[in-house]
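Invent a record, attention on tokens:
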Amino acid sequence: MHSFSVLATALLATVAIASPIEKRQIGANGTNPRQDDAALIEALILAPTAVERLSLLQPEDFIFDFLRATGNSTNTIGLGGRTVNADRTSFPALIGSGVSMTVGFLGPCGFNTPHIHPRSSEINIVAQGALVAEFTLENGLPTVVNPLTQWQMTVFPMGAMHTEFNPLCEPSVFVAGFADEDPGVQATTPTFFGFQSDIVRAALGGDGTVNGQDIDAFRTMIPRNVALGVDSCLEACGIQRR
């Protein structure tokens, strides 16, 4: 009995010592203040074990608020809506997990312009409204087009050029999951027009199609991510192009 009481006392003392946890304040915008913390990110990447990596994090580090997240590494904002990314930079707690996520808030007739993710496939579920999802994987394969309603999901294979379009006159929300902490993104049209002018002219059919002055104008007008589009939707919803 004596040994049991000694053991119980020791365990209680241990709990008493371990229980006080210093609560760090969440940022004024509702997000973790260590978002984009380069020193923390480097330490997490270099940690030799999972135990050491997790010991660098506080409970609040495991929360990401998609509605109130701010910062250039997190938000991509366009005329037709915005996307919010939780990856290893904006949400360092993901380091070592092998996953990341994006939530897209698309306004009426808004669309996520064609792009690819070079390091991950994407699963995409409609949380609100509807989407038209399209992708093309490679030469020789047809474009896959699917209308999606709320709670329906699709998959975009890794490296496939794809886009999501909101055909409704009301907002849509999608949630995209990735099998990589840093799936990467390459916007197709700006990337193409980023090549040398001679290359772009040749690809578009020769000097008679696009001249250098036109290309420079296109480069400044092409949206990098979320845009307004599809004339029929704009007309149906009474939305004028900006």
Notes: The two ends are 81 Å apart (CA to CA).
